[in-house]
Amino acid sequence: MSATRNGRRAREGGQALVEFSLAIMVFIVMLVGLFDLGRGVYTYNGVSEAAREIARVTAVHPGVVLGASNEALDRIAVQRRLVPDMGTPTFECVTVDGSASPNVPCASDDYVRVTVTATYRPLSLLGLGGPITLSASSSIRLP
Question: Whole-prediction pTM value?
């Protein structure tokens, strides 16, 4: 009788180990996916903040060509260090209704619109679809 109990305990211990190994794999995949989602949210927030910061500096220091002032170039360099895989920002003058401004250079009642993009590459199973391009724009009125 004791031999049967020991055999049953050994089988139950082996069964628990197999169940644990299956459950831990699902848990690890979910945990990695959660961290990956957090990285994506962090990158998108960085892109949004970069667009706002670059637009603010460009509105204050527009330069002859939008985004070409030393202050704007410095701000772009700072944001490139903060946002992974940030692309080159695009600048345009827009009117109050959002249409392209005919004024060259921008008039004082125009808005500066800055669009920033970054490529996000998921590391977990979300990455099966390939890289994702995140984009944000910000508009600030010229003084």
Answer: 0.77
Tokens of 136: 């944000």
**Helix (H) or strand (E) run with residue 75 in it:** helix 70-82
pLDDT of residue 5: 60
Lowest mean per-residue pLDDT among 4-18, 52-66, 120-134: 4-18
pLDDT digits (tens, 9 = 90+) for 14-45: 788 888 889 999 999 889 888 888 988 999 99
How do the domains of the chain map onto residue ranges? 2-141
Q: Cα(31)–Cα(91) distance, rounded to whole angstroms?
A: 39
Distances, alpha carbon 114 to alpha carbons 45, 71, 97, 118, 139, in Å: 15, 15, 16, 14, 6
Kindly state the tokens that stand for 31: 């945990």
Give residues with Cβ within 8 angstroms of 18, minimum separation 6. Answer: none
